[in-house]
Amino acid sequence: MLLYDMMTVARKELKEIMVQRGSLRSGLTNLLVTMLVIGVLFPLQWGAEWITSPVGLISTAWLPMMLSMGLIADTFAGERERHTLETLLASRLSDRAILFGKILAAVVYAVALALAGALLGAATVNMQSPGAGFYPAQNIVGMLVFSLLGALAVSGLGVLVSLRAETVRQAYQRMSLGFLILWLPLILGPQLLPEAWKAPVLRFFSGLDGTQIAVGAAVLLLVLAALFIGLAMARFQRSRLIEG
Amino acid sequence: MNTTAITTHHLTKDFRAPGGSLRALDNLDLEVPEGIVFGFLGPNGSGKTTTIRLLLGLLEPTAGQARVLGFDTRTQGDAIRMHTGALLEQTGLYERLSAEDNLDYYGRIYHLPAGQRQARIRELLDAMGLYERRKEIVGSWSRGMKQKLAVARALLHQPRLVFLDEPTAGLDPVAAAALREDLAQLAAERRVTIFLTTHNLADAERLCQQVAVIRAGQLLAVGSPDELRQRMAAHQGSQQAEIVGRGLTPELAARLEVLPDVLAARAEDQRLVIELRAGAEMAPVVAQVVAAGGMVEEVRKAKASLEEAFLELVENQE
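^ Those are the sequences you sent over. The predicted structure of the assembly is below.
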């Protein structure tokens, strides 16, 4: 029941994305441009290294995840701005079905776009450098996991800020601010560390191999996703959404 | 069997406001029987929309309680929303999607099987004269067309109770009349209860078996439109009547004024305009006119409109 309701909500969200620029044609054009960037332009620049280096797949997953930010900012704030939220809340859908359905749409969008971009990228590289082959299995699995968890974390944050935002623009601004707050410790953290800590921390990170870094990043994304989604669930109250 | 669709008991809602709180609904006691069209009338800001939100379980009451279709609005909002349909202040349509997509979405939300969903969408769009335009993006439609589609969406899953906030707003007279007829039929044949708010008192008069008048969150009156009119007449203490015919002279009018139930009478252009005591019968007056040589062609006992009754109720509270 919950799964069916989530899929109903997600299906509508995805349908709306395709026509959000006014028509299906412009929606498809938008998708095509994204695919050309991550599936043709970048791979052509990198050549065969796009297949062998994990950077190629990380870049492939990163852009769709960022694009899903716009989609998720549109969820509750967009429904409120376009006066569809109250009617939706007056329907039989449960709080969870609405919340998870919207998150599902953003995750499906990001992961599907990343996967399609990866496949197109592989095809592009092989056309440019025949025999370049396919991505190593652990890279493609890593990309899918990173894409999935990243999209979940972005969606969780997006829903959280979108729940109370009056407009899509306001939701997007708050999301951007949220991202900045999340990134600041990573950028400024090393510089702000006491001198005595810098060397041991550097030694710790330089001692990690690629798998350990990937697992650490996945755990961090998982924790962030769980935190944001948990907060969004706690914040989702029909009466407060209506009273504003 | 539960024969009351809606019951409220001292239902009260306060909203936070600068410098304190604002009472949007004040001790509302209401009973709406099943299978009728119930009109909820009141000026802007009187608490109509807040009442609908409370009844749908979308808002928590500050005090009091309400049951809708036997379900408690505080704890069983999900069950209420499962069995009701709603057209709220805004149409709530996804304007970037087509009419068919809008209805299909809500059909899926209410778990209508694919075949039934398609048949129901066709039936409703046909009835609203929108089927041929079902593939069009709703954003390009007129206000009236959107309103019709929103009504269709509220009725899609054949709910037992429908909340309609100003359902005929934006509709042309023909579409409004057709919708009134559909709603009346729905209530009569399928025992669907319709709770509607409207500013169009003529609509309410034609459609509603019972109406309630609310102002500043307080219930002023409840009853059938006829009862409300009678109450107004009783409150005013008089009602007007007219006799049309020949030989209706000022002298005859003066003779009528001696009758106990006639407060005043005057002759005007082949007719007598008579001010009667509230609830008085016309038969003795007509008999007196005939006895005095008047030729009676038509007798009209003026009926106050619901609008007059509504205005009287609202103004008396000011």
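Residues 95-128 of chain A form the longest helix (34 residues). Chain A is about 85% helix and 0% strand.

Shout if you want it in another format.
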